[in-house]
Amino acid sequence: GDTNVTNGSGTIQGLGTGGLAIAAVGKASVSNGTGIITGDLAGISAANVTVTGNAGLIEATGANGHAITATGDANVTNGAGTIQALASGGVAISADGKATVNNGTGTIAGGTVGIAGSTVDVSNTAGGSISGGIVGINGLTVTVSGNSGTIEATGNSGSALNANGDITVNN
């Protein structure tokens, strides 16, 4: 089924091996104030994910973890918070379908990829940071509708933006 979570300043965690902090078979709708949502494999995992706001921390701590992962679409609004999966193979935001991400002054960081999706539409207009060890943003089609922050690959021979199809950037 669907899951609706509002986390003010608390901690939601799934720390064991393969742990998921929030999991839903259907849609996960999450609002995270200044709280912490942390899992070994994923912070949030669902068919479709909507994060309406984040001023805290959403993370995956294990190897090959995804802070936010959707087998369908992910629609994420990150205010001043941090969304991260910094371990080897980590992806901060992953969607098998469309990843729509609005990043404020926050940080989105993956050990391997910052944001990944089939179609990726990103707005990073308030000075935030999006990074991945190998690729900052990866998709079949990538659109950056606005950027006044930083989008980068932090590792050697990395790409800030990577697409098998079109890349459109308004910087």
Q: What descriptive keywords fit this protein?
A:
mainly beta, 171 residues, 12-stranded parallel beta sheet, 19 strands, globular, 0% helix, single chain, 7-stranded parallel beta sheet
Structure description:
The chain is an all-beta fold and 171 residues long. The protein is built from no helices and 19 strands. It has strands at 3-7, 11-14, 20-23, 27-32, 36-39, 42-46, 48-54, 57-60, 66-70, 74-78, 82-85, 91-103, 107-110, 113-124, 129-132, 135-147, 150-153, 159-163, 167-169. Strands 1, 3, 4, 6, 7, 9, 10, 12, 14, 16, 18 and 19 form a twelve-stranded parallel β-sheet that branches. The protein is globular and about 35 Å long. The model has no long low-confidence stretch (mean pLDDT 98).
Mean pLDDT, all residues: 98
Would you list the SSEs in sequence order as H and E? EEEEEEEEEEEEEEEEEEE
Percent range for β-strand residues: over 45%
Low-confidence sequence ranges: none
Helix content range of the residues, please?
Answer: under 10%
Number of distinct helices: 0
Radius of gyration: 14 Å
Please identify the oligomeric state. Answer: single chain
Give me the count of strands. Answer: 19
Shape: globular
Task: Give the class from helix and strand content and strand pairing.
Answer: mainly beta
Kindly report how far apart the N and C termini lie. Answer: 39 Å
Major β-sheet profile: 12 strands, parallel
